[in-house]
Amino acid sequence: MRAAAIALLAITLSAPARAADGMTTANLRTLCLAQSGTTARLTCSGYLVGFVDGAAIVAATLSRPPWCAKNADVESTFLRFSQAHPQDDGQLAAVTIYLAMQEAYPCR
Questions:
Q1: For residues 18 and 42, is the Cβ–Cβ distance under 8 A?
Q2: Could you read off the pLDDT of 26-72 as tens digits, one per residue?
Q3: What are the residues whose beta carbons fall under 8 Å from the beta carbon of 27, sequence distance 6 or more?
Q4: Is 4 left (phi over 0), alpha (psi -120 to 50) or beta?
Q5: Burial, 7: exposed, middle or buried (Cβ in 10 Å; 0-12, 13-18, 19+)?
């Protein structure tokens, strides 16, 4: 199981990060900037919760967290990072979230 999780993570992070059929960084940012309580904003929240849950599974499998923060504001962290890196708008949103969280909450 651990080897499979490591292989999946390695493939995901080494593959071209362009989002052919997935959620792009630009699309997720648009959803997250929508008015609170709208379907778009709820979709943003659901995507972020799913990402964090998936990262927790990988962290448990690898016995180390992908970033070091217990109560991080994932949405604000993603928005700040994605707005600062517009060149990554076509990238998979999951890759951008991962990079944003690692930059904001590095494990020392």
A1: no
A2: 999 999 999 999 999 999 999 999 999 999 998 899 888 889 987 88
A3: 93
A4: alpha
A5: exposed
| CA distance readout (Å), 98 to 20, 68, 75, 82, 101 | 18, 12, 12, 11, 5
User: Are 49 and 71 in contact, with CB atoms under 8 Å apart?
Assistant: no
Q: With contact defined as beta carbons under 8 Å apart, do 94 and 56 qualify?
A: no
Using alpha carbons, list the distances in angstroms from residue 47 to 4, 5, 27. 23, 20, 11
* pLDDT tens figures, 5-36: 444 444 444 444 555 578 999 999 999 999 99
Dihedrals phi, psi of 39, to nearest 5 degrees:
-60, -40
Residue with tokens 């967290």: 65
CA distance 78 to 64: 21
Please state, as a whole number, how many other Cβ atoms lie within 10 Å of the Cβ of residue 43. Answer: 16
